Amino acid sequence: AHTTSNRKDAMQLLAGVKNIIAVVSGKGGVGKSTVAANLALALAENGAAVGLMDADIYGPSVPIMFGVRGQRPMMREVNGKGMIVPLEKYGIQLMSIGLLIDEKDAVVWRGPMASSAIKQFVTDVDWGQLDYLVIDMPPGTGDIHLTLLQTVPVTGVVIVTTPQTVALADAKKGIAMFSQAQVNVPIIGLVENMAYFTPAELPNNKYYLFGKEGGKKLAEEYELPFLGQIPIVQTIREGGDNGLPAMVSNDTITQEAFRNITNIAI
Ligand code: ADP
């Protein structure tokens, strides 16, 4: 009963949000944040109003990826309550723990504190009217995931994995979690990131550094929609570090890969 009432509250709070898409990965470092950021930008490209909630409390990357590190959001009074106003960059409404506190302070938080911070992203942030709220989830399958999925009416999850065995093993745990009766959130599909590398001087060659088509095979095994491959591209890494995500860079090939994901699934 507790869970139900939480969800109801969240639905009222996020009443202006039409679709909530959680981007998840079993393992850290597979490109979950990169995919979440570029998915948000790809959706906004079509004219949708899009927000990006960085729920990766222990490793917030949205401030760096969007080049808003050190900026602080404003407050606004809504129905007598002080609400945090998301920061807007490249047309996306952003919220991250890194925008509220010194990033290194959250690293030592225990689970309950991290979970309550996430709840505040729902209760205390004025998301307004959005077509999509993309949530960059923490890696893995822990308490924060359960809190979020039981609080927020998530429309569906996008699973990001690299093709290598260790990442796939963890992705399976994620699939199991979202399929559980306790959570039971629809899986929109699976993205295979860092699928291959093509050197500029050998444009027809693909090198499968982390193994070939591991994500695609996993999607087949679990009968999940396969949303596509994102290659390893130096500009993706550079853009991530420099506050210029691929979708707003001049890398048109990579942009097409991210656009395809939204075309297939969302
Ligand atoms: P996660 O959210 O899973 O921890 P990130 O999105 O932060 O992963 O990505 C980890 C690092 O890998 C970042 O430096 C990011 O820029 C880089 N990266 C992610 N995807 C790619 C890619 N397809 N090609 C090159 N670098 C990538």
UniProtKB/TrEMBL annotation:
ATP binds at residues 26-33. Homodimer. This is Iron-sulfur cluster carrier protein. The lineage of its organism: Bacteria, Pseudomonadati, Bacteroidota, Chitinophagia, Chitinophagales. GO terms for biological process: iron-sulfur cluster assembly. GO terms for molecular function: 4 iron, 4 sulfur cluster binding; ATP binding; ATP hydrolysis activity; ATP-dependent FeS chaperone activity; metal ion binding. Belongs to the Mrp/NBP35 ATP-binding proteins family. In the N-terminal section; belongs to the MIP18 family. Binds and transfers iron-sulfur (Fe-S) clusters to target apoproteins. Can hydrolyze ATP. Keywords: ATP-binding, Hydrolase, Iron, Iron-sulfur, Metal-binding, Nucleotide-binding.
